[in-house]
Amino acid sequence: MAKPGGNKKRCEKYKNSGRREENKRLRQIWEQKRCDRFAKRREEGKAYEYEPNPYEKGTVEYNREAHFRATKNVSHKGEFQLRKSRMRKLQNEINAEKRLLKLQDEINNNRKKGKGVSDYET
User: Fold this and answer.
1) 3, 80, 85, 87 — which has fewest CB within 10 A?
2) Tally of helices (H runs) and strands (E runs) in the chain
3) DSSP code for 110
4) Residue 7 clears pLDDT 90, i.e. is over it
5) Cβ atoms within 10 A of the Cβ of 31, count?
6) pLDDT in tens, 31-72
7) Can you say how many angstroms the Cα of residue 31 is from the centroid of all Cα atoms in its chain?
């Protein structure tokens, strides 16, 4: 692990060079443009407006609608599918590491034989 505080000089150089203030100014300009763009969209009526639940609170229809709205943007994967996805992701990481180690071994073996690293695409 790197020693903490190793970028102090770089940070001070960044602050003293004036780029920090310039970047702050640019971010403010970008944020203002973004706000203007969304205000224009709201004026044109292109903004999304949430409709309230049309049913009376406490009724079966209200609860169905509330449940439907709550589950719209949620993953519907089952436990088996989630586990399978995680295992596939881990296996892909393991395979990538194996390929990297194999390539490094090849490069090291060929260095001993006198071939250059530039002979290989990484």
Assistant:
1) 3
2) 4, 0
3) H
4) no
5) 10
6) 999 999 999 999 999 998 889 999 999 999 999 999 999 999
7) 20
